[in-house]
Amino acid sequence: MDPTPEQEAGLQQGESGEVENWAFVFGNLGDCKAFHVSKITGQITDITPEARVSNDAKDCGGRLGPYLDGGQPDLRNFRLRFIPCRKGDLIFVCSDGVHDNFDPEHLGISPRELGADADEWGQLPWTESESIKSLYRLRMLHVLLYCPEKLPESQKGGHRVKSVMPRKFTNRVESPRKEEGAIHYYGSGTLSMGVPLSPATVTNRLLDFCETTNDKAIRWMQEHPSQKLPVDYEKFPGKMDHATCLSFFVGARPS
């Protein structure tokens, strides 16, 4: 594959002498996901499109340590990647306990509501199902990070917070675009009030969204401690799992 212009240019310095062009080099195994946010364009890119390999929620796609016969690790979805970046871009990495709460299936939304010819997600081929979910997830992230005022509000803990994503989006932005090795979504590069995104903003909004999305299920389990939560994502949206999110700016760190 021919190198991109960014790769050909290498590390370039700006007028201040600081390095402007960077690369995020990483390895991914399992079902955690990573996203790149362009400071200039606001483009959100899913840089781990192969994190899931099947419709089985129990299959994380890969595992470190002895798992297969002979004590070998499961490296089915292991990938090494090089992502061109610029100074000031933002990277965030999250566990499935975060990104599964942006999955339309876990929000009680059927594939037919999103334009597919099926009423259940299991009726679709895996590749089609994952493509629809990936694009929906990116658009959800765009709304949550850039224009959260478009989300409904709910009362929780004495203050108003954003809750579950509506089925229909009203923000006017370009449609997602899928390419080999990545899925992109274009929108504004700043928050609705013109303030650039920060790592703290991204992490806090993602985790707050997960908590409020699962609020009904949490309260039900508190009220029925000896019972198993019914599998009804319309009534109890979200997924409760280990929720970890790490966000950071691209650029040099003070020595």
Strand order of the largest sheet: 10-11-3-2-7-12
Apparent shape: globular
Please tally the β strands and state the result.
Answer: 12
Helical percent range? 10-25%
Biggest sheet architecture: 6 strands, antiparallel
Order of helices and strands: HEEEEEEEHHEEEEHHE
Keywords:
255 residues, two-stranded antiparallel sheet, alpha+beta, 12 strands, six-stranded antiparallel β-sheet
Can you describe this structure in just a few lines?
The protein is an alpha+beta fold.
What does this structure look like?
By secondary structure, this protein is of the alpha+beta class. Helix content is 21%, strand content 23%. It contains five helices and twelve strands. The protein has helices at residues 5-9, 96-99, 126-146, 199-213, 215-223, and strands at 21-28, 33-37, 44-46, 63-68, 72-74, 79-86, 90-94, 153-156, 159-162, 177-179, 182-185, 245-249. A six-stranded antiparallel sheet has the order 10-11-3-2-7-12. Strands 1-6 form a two-stranded antiparallel sheet. It has a two-stranded antiparallel sheet with strand order 4-5. The protein is globular.
